[in-house]
Amino acid sequence: MEARTWNADEVIRLANGYWGVFALQALAATGLAARLAKGPATANALAASLGLDPKGADMLLVACKGLGLLGGRGDGYALAPGLEQLLDPDSPDSLHNYIMHMHDMAPDWARLPQAVASGRPVAQRGGQHDSPARRHFYGAMAELARMRAPLVAPSLGLRPGMRLLDLGGGPGIYALSFTRFQPGLAATVFDLPGAEPHFRREAKSRGLEGKVGYIVGDYNNDDLGGPYDVVWLSQVLHGVGPAVCRKLVGKAAQALAPGGALWVQEFVLDRRNPSPPFAALFALNMLINTEGGRGYTAEEISQFMIEAGLGQCEYSGPLPPGSPVGLVRGVKP
User: Fold this and answer.
1) Does residue 128 register a pLDDT over 80?
2) pTM > 0.90
3) Is the Cβ–Cβ distance between 200 and 189 less than 8 Å?
4) Distance (Å, rounded) from C-alpha 249 to C-alpha 305?
5) For the chain, how many structural domains are there in total?
6) Is residue 99 part of a domain?
7) What element of type H or E holds 10?
8) What is the CATH number of the domain that holds 267?
9) Number of helices followed by number of strands (H, E) in the chain
10) Which residue of 42, 138, 147, 309 is 20 to 30 Å from 84, comparing CA positions?
11) Alpha carbons 169 and 138: distance in angstroms, whole number
12) pLDDT tens, 80-117?
């Protein structure tokens, strides 16, 4: 990967790039985005209905119009085309929780220099499962999974009668989506008790109550059940160090039936050519937020599988092309 040649303007744009990010987050956090998703309104009407300072609201709206997030005529403001669903918290296509999850993490990212200097996490948010930050986290997981599940389901070789474990599946969007994709699939989510209410809500909203099971447990200490034909492990390994990864992949392999497959979905890191940079930046997010988490290469994930006794290990590459997310598969002999 050749180093690019930078100029002063490009450095300045990168240095102040967070201004636009924070404007988007404020649009969501103040309720302005949700209100505008219902229809156009003037700055004064928006400020009055949401209890915002008129000057502050006006300045944010003008900035967001400059960013292309808003349009409108005269004194009125409206969300730009395509954002009516994406910024509406009540929309099935909403990214509201993802935006708010990024907002929740912003103070910790400001302490990145301390994390780099110490090699330790600096996150200061509470971990209560009923906190707004935790609800945003589970909601963000669900929003991203809704986008990706239809893309990955055809790759897994699912058939009626198969048993699938969604390990560390949180709100269970993948298990629920895979069940919808392949009727007759017997899917189960395994996660901590705090994730179960989010799973129950998602199952009910999809009309799949009782169709997908939920095992309450800690994958570090509890038996996973099984045997399963497929174990789906999505975006879990990056939150822990290599030793825990080896243990978890080993437990997943033990829970597989002969011929069963472990599928790992991760932000796959390419250390030699980390461009696009999302996976490398996400690794910094793990430095900030976890004790041992980091980004892993496809080779490292495959090695975890090999050490667990799995074969036919294969990295399918980014899915879709250009995405920071990829799949690694291992098969139990």
Assistant:
1) no
2) yes
3) no
4) 6
5) 2
6) no
7) helix 8-15
8) 3.40.50.150
9) 14, 10
10) 138
11) 10
12) 999 999 999 999 999 999 999 999 999 999 999 999 99
pLDDT of residue 43: 97
Number of other CB atoms surrounding residue 198 within 10 Å: 22
Q: List strand residue ranges (DSSP E) for 168-283, in order.
A: 186-191, 213-216, 228-234, 256-267
Tell me, yes or no, whether 326 lies in a domain.
Answer: yes
Identify the CATH number of the domain in which residue 61 sits: 1.10.10.10
Asked if residue 82 and residue 118 are part of one domain, the reply reads no
Instruction: Judge if the upstream peptide bond of residue 171 is cis by omega within 30 degrees of 0.
Output: no
pLDDT higher than threshold 60 for residue 126:
no
One domain for residues 160 and 56: no
The H or E element containing residue 47 is helix 43-50
Asked if 71 contacts 78 with a C-beta cutoff of 8 angstroms, the reply is yes
Which residue range(s) make up the domain with 202?
112-331
Please give the backbone phi and psi of residue 326, each rounded to the nearest 5 degrees, phi first: -140, 170
In DSSP notation, 145-163 reads HHHHHHHHGGGS---TT-E
Domain match, 208 and 59 both: no
- Identify whether residues 43 and 175 lie together within a single domain: no
Residue 1 within any structural domain of the chain: no
Question: Is 102 part of any domain?
Answer: no
Indicate if the alpha-carbon torsion angle 187, 148, 333, 269 is positive or negative.
negative
Q: How far apart are CA 311 and CA 307, in angstroms?
A: 10
Gap between the Cα atoms of 134 and 192, Å rounded: 13
Amino acid at 268: V
Residue type at 207?
G
Q: Give the C-alpha separation, 292 to 261, whole Å.
A: 26
Domain final residue, candidates 74, 89, 104: 89
Looking at the structure, tell me whether residues 204 and 258 fall in a common domain: yes
pLDDT (tens digit per residue) in 141-159: 999 999 999 999 999 999 9
